[in-house]
């Protein structure tokens, strides 16, 4: 099993660990997806590179919002919530239904550390 | 009508327990009212907050089939510049929350000591209180 | 609603000049090009939408004057709402001027006893250029002010005595400064039918938005038709000055084919907003920053004092103006969207 497959499996475990979490996408600074994992419920459009790129730009703007480097952004919509973790140079996007527990989603942040380390290895290889 | 005294009074009531400032802005990013400790960057904060709002709103309408953006939170960490000897603190840790009220935006800036849940509860209460009156004013 | 306004006075006293400046967007310098008025020039000036001023600019040469008092007497002096009589301050034939004025009053008293009478002592600016250079400007100014008010007081007393039983209001005017606006504002103020109601609503608006002062200008002439003051201001001539300055500015805008719409003036202590209000008016809102900013002193743990700064940004005031606009439009009963046209000869 390749490293990428292992990573994908790890991410799927994360998705299943939080009820309502539908997709996890890890992109680079240009909005290009490095790895994408989603449950069948996830809205397909939300994971298109075009939109992911726009959020990258936004997260950079956030840094100017008064208090230093932007670490995370959480957006609440009518039916969905979107959480971004800014892990320079990568950006993690989590898409969940509005009913999902926001605190639990945010708590996933620490679990991404080993995954990101592995991912960097893959990218550099 | 926006009564200056009443409105700024309501906004200033939120500035307790770690909340730095509260501002009201329109969707174009123009500042309407401000209350807080110091006012250096109020206008810039308003402009950036609305710009982020607009871009996430667009994201929501396309990516999630016309899903309306209700609010967003930005968490920031301290930003330092170090030359090896001195460390200059450029900005402090803090969170910014923006919520829609009628057709304007309410923005709150708090330091890290305020838990996100508290911040969200605080701004929601304020937003609910302002919703009725601001809808009457019907700003565009 | 049409109101007939008679503009009379000796030939060359400046009737047409002032009319052109107030109602036809002339600047003072341009009035040199105006020739003498032959007989009566009628003009309709739409003022505040449903109020139309029917201006009768009566040429002042003796032959015409005699004619007005004799064969045209009924035609001229019937249904007059306002008589504006213009005196040239440096006229050498004071006796004759007074005689004509008296004749005119008699005719008014006979035909329109309800008419309001205004006397304008005009050209209160004249002093020979060469004399100006001999003395320092400040000395001239002090001297002139004293001299002018002295002359004006004498003339005013004479005229009031002469006008009895009619009541007459006197103004000193000059086309070169704001005094002209002051006089005309007072005149049109008397002509606006619902001015008390307008004032009441303006007062209410001012209180709601915590403004220091709110002025309402007629759109074409920029005359102040209504104002509300909550914080006393030391300059009593400020309305006319603002009228004068903004009118000039508006005219220079139109030279660039741009229509003046709004402006915001701000310094450390106040902010003033001038904006199009109803189809017939402009509004000026003055907010002092001290009332916008509030300092709350909170003592935290007994020792530390924190300062909360609160303020309402200009966009909020503009929203308030916008919201008041609907209300005042209703009050004005505006239905036609015709822009107010000035100076349309019949």
TrEMBL record, chain A:
GO CC field: Ragulator complex
One GO process term, biological-process aspect: positive regulation of TOR signaling
Pfam families in UniProt: MAPKK1_Int (PF08923)
Lineage: superkingdom: Eukaryota
Gene3D superfamilies given in the database record: Dynein light chain 2a, cytoplasmic
Family, similarity comment: Belongs to the LAMTOR3 family.
Matching PANTHER family: RAGULATOR COMPLEX PROTEIN LAMTOR3, REGULATOR COMPLEX PROTEIN LAMTOR3
Descriptive protein name: Uncharacterized protein
Source species of the chain: Dinothrombium tinctorium
Lineage, highest ranks first: Eukaryota, Metazoa, Ecdysozoa, Arthropoda, Chelicerata
From TrEMBL, chain B:
Domain Roadblock/LAMTOR2 stretches: 9-77
BP GO annotations: positive regulation of TOR signaling
Source organism superkingdom: Eukaryota
Xref: InterPro entries: LAMTOR2-like, Roadblock/LAMTOR2_dom
GO molecular function: guanyl-nucleotide exchange factor activity; molecular adaptor activity
GO CC annotation, single: cytoplasm
Protein family: Belongs to the GAMAD family.
PANTHER family: LATE ENDOSOMAL/LYSOSOMAL MP1 INTERACTING PROTEIN (PTHR13323)
Protein name, as recorded: Ragulator complex protein LAMTOR2 homolog
Lineage of origin: Eukaryota, Metazoa, Ecdysozoa, Arthropoda, Chelicerata
UniProtKB/TrEMBL annotation, chain C:
Keywords from the named record: Cytoplasm, GTP-binding, Hydrolase, Isopeptide bond, Lysosome, Membrane, Nucleotide-binding, Transmembrane, Transmembrane helix, Ubl conjugation
UniProt keyword Secreted, yes or no: no
Any Pfam family hit: Gtr1_RagA
Membrane as UniProt keyword: yes
Broad class of where this protein is predominantly found: cytoplasm
Localization annotation: Cytoplasm; Endomembrane system; Lysosome
Membrane-traversing stretches: 303-321
Family: Belongs to the GTR/RAG GTP-binding protein family.
PANTHER family for this protein: RAS-RELATED GTP BINDING RAG/GTR YEAST (PTHR11259), RAS-RELATED GTP-BINDING PROTEIN (PTHR11259:SF1)
Name recorded for this polypeptide: Ras-related GTP-binding protein A-like protein
Organism: Dinothrombium tinctorium
Lineage: Eukaryota, Metazoa, Ecdysozoa, Arthropoda, Chelicerata
């Amino acid at each position: 099993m390749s490293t990428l497959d292992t990573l994908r499996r790890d991410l799927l475990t994360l998705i299943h660990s939080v009820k309502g979490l539908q997709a996890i996408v890890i992109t680079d600074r240009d909005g290009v997806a490095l790895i994408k994992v989603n449950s069948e419920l996830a809205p397909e459009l939300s994971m298109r590179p075009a939109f992911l790129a726009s959020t990258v730009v936004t997260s950079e703007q956030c840094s100017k919002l008064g208090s230093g480097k932007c670490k995370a952004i959480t957006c609440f919509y009518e039916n969905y919530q979107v959480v971004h973790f800014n892990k320079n140079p990568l950006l993690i996007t989590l898409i969940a239904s509005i009913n999902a527990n926001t605190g639990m989603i945010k708590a996933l942040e620490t679990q991404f550390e080993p995954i990101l380390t592995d991912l960097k290895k893959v990218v550099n290889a | 009508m926006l009564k200056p005294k009443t409105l700024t009074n309501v906004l200033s009531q939120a500035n307790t327990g770690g909340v730095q400032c509260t501002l009201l802005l329109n969707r174009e990013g123009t500042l309407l009212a401000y209350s807080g400790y110091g006012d250096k960057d109020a206008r810039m904060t308003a402009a950036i907050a609305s710009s982020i709002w607009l871009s996430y709103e667009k994201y929501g309408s396309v990516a999630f089939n016309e899903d309306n953006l209700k609010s967003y939170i930005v968490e920031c960490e301290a930003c330092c510049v170090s030359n090896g000897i001195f460390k200059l603190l450029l900005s402090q840790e803090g969170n910014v929350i923006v919520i829609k009220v009628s057709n304007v935006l309410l923005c709150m800036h708090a330091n890290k000591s305020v838990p996100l849940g508290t911040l969200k509860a605080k701004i929601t209460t304020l937003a609910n209180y302002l919703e009725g009156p601001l809808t009457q004013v019907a700003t565009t | 609603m049409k109101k007939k306004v008679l503009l009379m006075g000796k030939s060359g006293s400046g009737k047409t000049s002032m009319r052109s400046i107030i109602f036809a967007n002339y600047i003072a310098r341009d009035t040199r090009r105006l020739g003498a008025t032959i007989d009566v020039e009628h003009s309709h000036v739409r003022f505040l939408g449903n109020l139309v001023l029917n201006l009768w600019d009566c040429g002042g040469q003796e032959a015409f004057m005699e004619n007005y008092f004799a064969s045209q007497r009924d035609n001229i002096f019937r249904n007059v709402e306002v008589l504006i009589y213009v005196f040239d301050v440096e006229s050498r034939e004071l006796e004759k001027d007074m005689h004509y004025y008296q004749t005119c009053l008699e005719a008014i008293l006979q035909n329109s006893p309800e008419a309001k009478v205004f006397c304008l002592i005009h050209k209160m600016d004249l002093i020979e250029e060469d004399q100006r250079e001999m003395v320092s400007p400040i000395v001239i100014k002090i001297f002139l002010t004293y001299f002018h008010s002295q002359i004006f007081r004498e003339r005013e007393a004479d005229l009031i005595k002469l006008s009895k039983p009619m009541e007459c209001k006197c103004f000193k005017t000059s086309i070169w400064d704001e005094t002209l606006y002051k006089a005309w504002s007072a005149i049109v103020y008397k002509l606006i039918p619902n001015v008390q109601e307008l004032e009441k609503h303006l007062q209410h608006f001012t209180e709601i938005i915590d403004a220091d002062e709110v002025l309402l200008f007629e759109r074409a002439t920029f005359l102040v038709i209504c104002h509300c003051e909550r914080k006393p201001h030391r300059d009593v001539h400020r309305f006319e000055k603002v009228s004068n300055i903004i009118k000039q500015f508006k005219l220079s805008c139109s030279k660039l084919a741009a229509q003046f719409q709004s402006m915001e003036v701000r310094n450390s202590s106040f902010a003033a907003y001038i904006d199009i209000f109803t189809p017939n008016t402009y509004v000026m809102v003055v907010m002092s920053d001290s009332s916008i900013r509030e300092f709350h002193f909170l003592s935290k743990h007994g020792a530390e004092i924190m300062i909360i700064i609160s303020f309402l940004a200009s966009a909020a005031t503009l929203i308030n103006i916008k919201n008041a606009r609907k209300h005042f439009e209703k009050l004005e009963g505006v239905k036609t969207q015709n822009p107010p046209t000035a100076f349309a000869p019949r």
